[in-house]
Amino acid sequence: MKVSEIRLMPAEEIRTRLLDAKKEYMNLRFQAVSGQLTDTSKLKEARRSIARFETILNEKLLEKEVEGEA
């Protein structure tokens, strides 16, 4: 998912997607440990998508704080 698409989402949907991405990452880790995961690049992709969601969510929260102070 592109960053521009994530920025258009409301904060609640980003939180939902973040939880889903974390669950997916955990499943991939279990598969890697048990030897079932053949494409290990999926682990890297999952970590990066989690980071994207968290970064944009934090940006949105900071925007709300700044708007509240102004």
TrEMBL record:
The keyword Flavoprotein does not apply. One of its GO terms (biological process) is translation. Keywords: Ribonucleoprotein, Ribosomal protein. GO terms for cellular component: cytosolic large ribosomal subunit. InterPro entries: Ribosomal_protein_uL29 (IPR050063), Ribosomal_uL29 (IPR001854), Ribosomal_uL29_sf (IPR036049). Gene3D superfamilies: 1.10.287.310. It holds the Pfam family Ribosomal_L29. GO terms for molecular function: structural constituent of ribosome. Belongs to the universal ribosomal protein uL29 family. This is Large ribosomal subunit protein uL29. It comes from Pelolinea submarina.
